[in-house]
Amino acid sequence: MVVAEQGITRQRFKSIIGGSAGNLVEWYDWFAYATFSIYFAPLFFPEGDLTAQLLNTAAIFAAGFLMRPIGAWVMGIYGDKHGRKAGLTLSVLLMAGGSLAIAFAPTYAQAGVVAPTILVIARMVQGLSVGGEYGSSATYLSEMAPAARRGFWSSFQYATLSGGQLLAILVALILQALLSEAQMGDWGWRIPFVIGSMLALCVYLLRRTMSETKSFTNIDQKREHSSLKLLWRDHKRSCILVAVMSGGGGLASYAFTTYMLKYLINTAGFEKQTATLIIAGVLIWSFCLQPIAGMLADRFGRKPLLLIAGAGVALAAVPIYTLVGQATSPIVALALILIPITLHGGYTANNAMVKAELFPAHIRALGVAFPYAVGNTIFAGTLEYVALWFKSTGNETGFFWYVAICVGATVIAYLMLPETRDTSLITED
């Protein structure tokens, strides 16, 4: 059997598939907001032009990010104390509730300021969920994967993240084909959130049947329990490196996928459906790329892939954004965006594994989740707002340089990292 030949048991394979499927649904729900905000922004913020409305929804997008460090803190400790499986189960239940609230939220015309308030609260609940999901899933998949193939198997953490984003895009394409622009703006945008909440409930049932990792079951329960104090006291350097990596790496991911959809519409002038198709192509490529980059990390180490990603994307950011903004052909725009996406694969496929390998089991879920959430909140979470602010001031080129500088800063962190393939603190195979 192929699974056995690759050094992974049937039970491990089943658990990895279960964890990955849940991760896909979690990120579908998270990205559905960004994908469909172009339609529901006028219903919750009726005043102003398109850029102003998108600024308001971007602010709520950022509010969801602000909850991610809290979710990472609370649920990271929860995962270290009660198990990775318990953390994964709780996170997907929270996501189901947040998505359902958005699906049935009243509009501004129906409820006034109550409408955007509900949107903010629902997004904050989703932020709590994703804050816990990343640490739990990254830890779970890295601990479940055998050491020799950890890069390959743990790469599905980001592959399913891309898959969740792609699923949101595909739902958008289907709805755009079936519904008119008016129907999409009136009620069609609610459908993806109903789908997301139902899928999350199904995953909740699936995750309850998954196995726990040996790394967690082997933890000495008499030792000091997971806490931010313990994390900072014993693992300060790793925390700082993870936060820097996550800030620049997460910003790059959102810059060339989530925000790029709006850039294609709002700056390059592509039709919504055309822009959606371009990003769908980007995400399909990204999904297929992850296992390849993971296998390369198993063969050549984590650091070379990370350095290529940081330096390559930093150098590509300004010319790629400039050329995409001038592109009139969807094929040309797609080809241009695939350049930074391919370079960035060295980060996306391997970052979760590297972070897990930096921390011992008793504090691993918190160590992976919290500094990641802090870095992402500061940089990735504010990306759309920063981008739209630059555009509103007539200096959109400033945003391109902002992306280049932020991603370039990660190279320093990568140079300071140990080669975790050789120094991994994940010892249970």
Quick one: biggest sheet?
Answer: none
CATH architecture: Up-down Bundle
Number of strands: 0
Mean pLDDT: 88
Stretches with pLDDT under 50, minimum 5 residues: 1-6
Taken from the alpha-carbon principal axes, the silhouette is globular
The name of the CATH superfamily reads MFS general substrate transporter like domains
Structural class: mainly alpha
β-strand percent reads under 5%
Domains (count): 1
CATH class: Mainly Alpha
Secondary-structure element series: HHHHHHHHHHHHHHHHHHHHHH
Distance between the termini: 20 Å
Q: Fraction of residues in helices?
A: over 70%
Write up this protein.
- By secondary structure, the chain is mainly α.
- The protein has one domain (about 1-210, about 225-425): MFS general substrate transporter like domains (Growth Hormone, Chain: A).
- The protein is about 80% helix and about 0% strand.
- It has 22 helices and no strands.
- It has helices spanning about 1-5, 10-45, 50-65, 70-80, 85-105, 110, 115-145, 150-155, 155-180, 180-185, 190-205, 215, 230-255, 260-265, 270-300, 300-325, 330-350, 350-355, 365-380, 385-390, 395-415, 420-425.
- Helix 3 (about 50-65) packs across helix 7 (about 115-145).
- The longest helix is centred in the N-terminal third of the chain and has 35 residues, at about 10-45.
- The two termini are about 20 Å apart.
- Mean pLDDT is about 90; it is low at about 1-5.
